[in-house]
Amino acid sequence: MNQDYPGEIEIIIAYDDGTTDKTLQVLEELKSSLPPRRNLVIFQHKHTTPFRARVLTLKNFSGDYVHLFDYDNIMPPNRISKVVEHIEKTGAEFLFSNAKIIDSSGHIRGTMFNIEDPYNILKLIKGNFIDTNTIVISSSCAERLLELLAGLKHRYFDQLHEDWLIALLAMKHCKVHYMNDTYILYRVHGENITASQDIYTQLFNKERAFKTLLAFYLLDYENLNKTEREELQKAIINHSNLLNREIIKRMNSKRAEIFYYIERILCKVFLKL
């Protein structure tokens, strides 16, 4: 709403029917106070996972580009203007930037990623450096991504790192551009899923990472070159063990502890072969 971009902006709220507070009432009231050239669209959908909700969003936006964004983060006022500037200069179909981490009081605590080689898919396979909230996708790129993502109908893939998977697919199927002169503010708080230090949430995220790489393998393996295939295979193997030291410690089992460390040693040796 507060962006300095003079053109039209359609704000799409993906409203989950699982919500139990007065969010919908607040949004309806907000419609009447929107500034000029701002349109609020409330897209109601059944209770689902973040990944499935993101796919629904890609299916239902009507503009030339969609900027993905979570409710608890902040866009600098010139963000959309900068995005449009980059689009006009590059004709990019998939844009992303870095993010600055802020605490619950709004103080900047650092930069989310160290992005030295933004177009290197081999590095992206090793670990994600593209956050959902920085992603901008053209309608043509979204169509290509949706065709691929349609192959993940099984509920096994309901929970994965949607930004990582979308970014991997975009690297192979869309014109990608990194914006290094703009950013978003990523808020870290007690309910973060990705940034949480809770042991069970960390285990959940390990499983999401494994499923993300496996999904990319199943959807796009034929389009990868030999080096990319080998790197993806290594990454899947490296993420296949969902146990961690804290869980092993809580199990208080010598068998489990020995198995865990032998498996990690074998994994490291195997990946170097």
Walk me through the structure.
This protein is an alpha/beta fold. The chain has a single domain (9-200), classed as Spore Coat Polysaccharide Biosynthesis Protein SpsA, Chain A (Alpha-Beta Complex). The chain is 45% helix and 17% strand.
Could you provide a short overview of the structure?
The protein has ten helices and seven strands. The chain has helices at residues 23-31, 50-60, 79-90, 121-126, 139-149, 162-173, 199-220, 226-238, 245-251, 254-272; strands spanning 9-16, 38-45, 65-67, 94-102, 108-111, 136-138, 176-187.
Poorly predicted regions are none
What CATH architecture would you give? Alpha-Beta Complex
- Shape label: globular
Span between termini: 53 Å
- What is the fold named in CATH at topology level? Spore Coat Polysaccharide Biosynthesis Protein SpsA, Chain A
Give Rg in angstroms.
Answer: 20 Å
SS-based class = alpha/beta
CATH superfamily: Spore Coat Polysaccharide Biosynthesis Protein SpsA, Chain A
Number of domains: 1
Got a strand count? 7
Amount of helix: 40-55%
List keywords for this structure.
five-stranded mixed β-sheet; single chain; 273 residues; globular; Spore Coat Polysaccharide Biosynthesis Protein SpsA, Chain A; alpha/beta; 7 strands
